[in-house]
Design goal:
The protein has 122 residues and is mainly β. It has a 6-stranded antiparallel β-barrel with strand order 1-2-3-6-5-4.
Length: 122
């Protein structure tokens, strides 16, 4: 089973546990595509690092590349919304931004793929 992300506490109100997993993420925002890396994932969203500022409440198209221990890969795609950005304002000195992203239309099959990936021990 995955590990809770650092900073999570027993009082965390999230419905789904976040798992500290690093996977490649592609984010489409406006006409731009961004490469991102996850810091943690659940079946409801993810926390990732991107190279430029994205405004809170921006809608995104997200694609997660899930590398299973068996050697198989699955790609999960859905729409998402940015619910938090750190740092919270654009900065000329920031080299990266951390986005908390909530999945909007993840279908059951894709949610099961994420659950299966998170259930694997790495």
């Amino acid at each position: 089973m995955g590990h809770k992300a650092s900073g999570d506490t027993g009082s965390d109100r999230r419905r789904d546990e976040r798992h500290a997993r690093t996977v490649a993420v592609r984010v489409a925002h406006d006409a731009d595509g961004l490469r991102a890396q996850s810091l943690n994932i659940s079946t409801r969203g993810l926390y990732c690092v991107v190279p430029r500022y994205v405004h809170p409440f921006s809608k995104l198209r997200v694609a997660l590349d899930l590398p299973f221990a068996s050697g198989e890969h699955a790609t999960v795609e859905c729409e998402a919304v940015v619910v938090r950005v750190e740092p919270d304002t654009p900065s000329p000195t920031a080299k990266e931004y951390r986005l908390a992203v909530y999945f909007l239309n993840l279908d059951r099959g894709d949610a099961r793929r994420i659950e299966g990936f998170l259930a694997e021990s790495h």
